[in-house]
Amino acid sequence: MLSLYRPGSGWIYRAPAGAKLGAIMAVVLVVSFLPSNLWTLGVLVALPCLCYTLNGLGWRELGHQLFVLRWVIAIALAVQLLFVPFDLAITNTCRVVTAMLIANVLVLTTRLETLLDSTERGLRPLARLGVSPERVALALALAITTIPVLTRISRDVREAQRARGLGASLTRFTVPFLVGALKHADELGEALTARGIE
Questions:
Q1: DSSP assignment of 47-74, as one string?
Q2: How much is the average pLDDT of 28-57?
Q3: How many whole angstroms separate alpha carbon 104 and alpha carbon 48?
Q4: In whole angstroms, how far apart are CA 148 and each of 57, 68, 163, 181, 189?
Q5: Rounded mean pLDDT of 82-90?
Q6: How far apart are CA 19 and CA 45, in angstroms?
Q7: What pLDDT does residue 168 have?
Q8: What is the tens place of the pLDDT at every residue in 139-174?
Q9: Helix axes 86-109, 112-123, angle to 10 degrees
């Protein structure tokens, strides 16, 4: 399976996957409920910087993740500006981006197999309530591994458009991107069915 894991030796790499997951979920929850003001904006900017530089990922990885999220940032900010004042739109957008960057630290510093095993162990007590830990872990694995696949499809569509001399167009990008994404979903569904997973 594809993985977003980046090899490293920082302290966060050595932390147990369950502890990392709990800590990151707590930080994201706190970030979501911070009031919208200048102090919060400062915290939202500082948190990802600290998370990426203090655990060995570094500024380059942070810059790369921001570049990957550029369209999320642009769309989130544009939508916010339609409904709220500028300063609130900036704070809300930073809140979303900071939560995504911090959550991404988990998959960047934890091998996928370790993360799935930890998720499965953590959900075992819920088996009495009818929750299947194996299915939840599989769903998590599929979600994580689909991210780089969609990124590759997006890159292939843009490169094909450039090769044909076509300019940027939301419609010309969306249709082939959706076709590629749906084709991947069909192939994935067939592969799971072939293995007896429904």
A1: HHHHHHHTTT-HHHHHHHHHHHTHHHHH
A2: 83
A3: 10
A4: 19, 11, 22, 12, 18
A5: 87
A6: 24
A7: 67
A8: 766 776 676 677 778 878 888 888 887 776 667 778
A9: 100
pTM check: above 0.85: no
27 or 122: whose pLDDT is higher? 27
Q: Cβ-count burial of 11 within 10 angstroms (0-12 exposed, 13-18 middle, 19+ buried)? A: exposed
Q: Which of 79, 80, 144, 91 is CA-nearest to residue 116? A: 144
pLDDT at 1: 38
Two structure tokens written together for 192: 């799971």
With 0-12 / 13-18 / 19 or more C-beta atoms within 10 angstroms meaning exposed / middle / buried, residue 193 is: exposed
**Residues near 25 by beta carbon (within 8 Å), at least 6 away in sequence:** none
Q: What is the pLDDT of residues 59-85, one digit of tens each?
A: 888 888 888 778 778 888 888 888 888
Number of C-beta neighbours around residue 147 at 10 A? 14
Contacts of 162 (CB under 8 A, 6+ apart): none
Q: How far apart are CA 155 and CA 122, in angstroms?
A: 36
State how far Cα 119 lies from the chain centre: 17
Average pLDDT of 35-64? 84
> Side chain identity at 116, as an amino acid letter?
L
Locus of tokens 């990885």: 61
d(CA 47, CA 54): 11
